[in-house]
Specification:
Layout lengths: L2 H4 L6 E6 L5 H17 L3 E4 L6 H10 L1 E4 L10 E4 L6 H9 L3 E4 L3 H15 L3 E5 L5 H7 L6 E4 L16 E5 L5 H14 L13 H14 L4 E5 L5 H12 L5 E4 L7 H4 L4 E6 L5 H12 L5 E6 L11 H16 L1
Parallel strand pairs: 1-11, 1-12, 2-3, 2-4, 4-5, 6-7, 6-8, 9-10, 9-11
Helix pairs in contact: 2-12, 5-6, 8-9
């Protein structure tokens, strides 16, 4: 018996999107901090937010993680973890100069874009990086080849693009963008630069694409779509935009259930619910409980993809964990 069949029908329902929440890269990054705390003890320093989620950061802080903006804030010789969004080469160099033990929790899908940037720069291409100015991932990728990369911040920015040789141009993208908006940006770029090359494989990550796809499926049926996620989370912000573009009457981003305004639910019969790729499932369950208290007891989970991808922990951490386990076995 499903949850929807087990509860009395109120005429108010929730369409619960799946996939939602943690992606493989976020899961790996959070686990990296947790395992480092167990292995090395406190404090463990993390450069920038490990992932863009308020609750996750607060939880890790309570366990002993200290979040800093730059390496200069980390005591010399201490352990620092680089966030899932990736860093420029100069950040590694700063860590080396300060004798920091650096653990790289960059999402492997972001690392792939870094590799692409280095390769195309080595071949002397102009690289058009589609992304949002100031986002940590964009800063890290651009830092791989600053002389070759120029940012294209959405379709409206295309007219500002200048290249040295229209025969040697490639586009790359931030991994957490709106799929549709990125395709529109690429289409406009190709009108100006017909020989523009595409990355060897899609840069927008599978989790971002999947979460947007299921929201498109449910949006037109929804009076309001609630997205659980933080405001500095690019993929969470995009989910609200996608919902509205796909026909939802309203859309709102919340970190926690208590932020939901009852006025948003007034007159609503169908609420869509999803969460960004850096959001733990417990926050979604709290929103479901909040909605149930307001009569939204009929919950239908809409599934459009089955995600099974996992990423192994960073090599430097795995090596130390293995050494610690061997020492414990001997002792």
């Amino acid at each position: 018996m499903t949850e929807a069949q087990a509860t009395p029908q109120t005429g108010k329902r929730v369409l619960l999107a799946k996939p939602r929440g943690y992606c493989a890269g976020v899961d790996r990054a959070v686990q990296t901090v947790e395992e480092a705390l167990k292995l090395y003890g406190t404090p463990i320093y993390v450069r920038k937010q490990i992932v863009h989620n308020k609750h996750v950061v607060q939880t890790l802080e309570a366990q002993g993680a200290i979040f800093v903006e730059e390496n200069e804030e980390v005591p010399e010789g201490a352990t620092v973890i680089f966030s899932a969004h990736g860093v420029a080469p100069e950040v590694y160099e700063q860590a080396r100069v300060r004798s920091l033990k650096a653990i790289d929790a960059t999402c492997p899908l972001v690392t792939k874009v870094h590799h692409e940037a280095r390769r195309f720069a080595a071949e002397d291409y102009d690289i058009l990086l589609i992304g949002h100015e100031g986002h940590e991932e964009v800063i890290g990728t651009a830092g791989e080849a600053p002389a070759h990369i120029q940012l294209v911040d959405g379709p409206e920015d295309v007219e500002n693009v200048t290249v040295r040789d229209p025969n040697k141009v490639v586009w790359l993208s931030q991994t957490t963008l709106s799929v549709d908006e990125t395709l529109e940006t690429v289409a406009r770029l190709k009108k100006r630069l017909p020989l523009l090359q595409s990355p060897p494989s899609d840069d927008i990550c599978y989790a971002t694409s999947n979460r947007q796809h299921v929201v498109k499926e449910i949006a037109a049926e929804c009076d309001v779509v609630l997205v659980v996620g933080s405001r500095n989370s690019s993929n969470s912000v995009r989910l609200v935009e996608v919902a509205l573009d796909a026909g939802a009457r309203a859309g709102h981003l919340v970190d926690f259930a208590h932020e939901i305004d009852d006025a948003w639910l007034a007159g609503a019969t169908t609420v869509g619910l999803t969460s960004g790729a850096s959001v733990p499932e417990e926050l979604v369950q709290q929103v479901l409980a909040h909605l149930a208290e307001r009569g939204f007891t009929d919950v239908e989970e809409i599934t459009t993809a089955d995600e099974r991808l996992t990423f192994s922990l960073p090599q430097e951490l795995k090596r130390d964990m293995k050494a610690a386990a061997a020492a414990a076995a001997r002792g």
